[in-house]
Design goal:
TrmK, about 20% strand, alpha/beta, binds S-adenosylmethionine
Amino acid sequence: KLSKRLQAVASRIGNDAVLADIGSDHAYLPAHLVLTDRIRRGIAGEVARGPFESAEATIRETGLEGKVIARLADGLEAIREEDGVDTVSIAGMGGPLIASILENGKERLSGVRRLVLQPNIHAGAIRSWAVANGWHIIEEDILEEDGKIYEVIVLERGKAIYDDLQLRFGPYLSERQPPAFRKKWEREAASLRKIIDRMQEASPSEERDIKEAKLKRSLYEILEVLG
Ligand code: SAM
């Protein structure tokens, strides 16, 4: 059974997709989707040998040889033209790492119609990448599991314009503000407040003032969105 976090990713993969799951670790996501007849086949891409071997073990143990293929590769290099991949998922990493994987391999996305991304932190990096590369957000989700809060961003091709607040907080999430969203940003605000308070104990310097002003702007933005 998938974790609640991976279920939130799985439910956004279209029926009959050909999926490349990048940073797949145990290949749980593509294996689950093939086993439940949700997708036709999947690639499990892994850059690290240990997780790649775990992916191979999952495929062997579930008898999915040929339907899920594990590849030891950096980012989107796991995708080959003949695979016919139409959907890419990248889950369980920071937003900036996910954005850099997309940026570094974007020539491999030519046949891809949907990206299902699950950043643990700094989802804004993904939204900025999307805008700069002709993708737009079709859906956003946020959920809490084991005390941690995760976002899911679904992108399809098409231009969109988001302002700075929408890039940071998410155009749909900031509109709807579900409980996990409010909890995430209340936590973030509390941690910023702590850092700002501690800074005021440090000896004054121009550098400190600049840093403090930046953190305060960041905090005020959160308070503005939470209202
Ligand atoms: N996607 C799974 C999930 O959400 O449960 C596993 C997440 S795990 C925290 C992140 C995985 O991404 C690790 O196994 C790591 O080796 C892999 N990874 C990190 N950078 C990568 C890259 N550039 N290309 C492929 N895999 C990468």
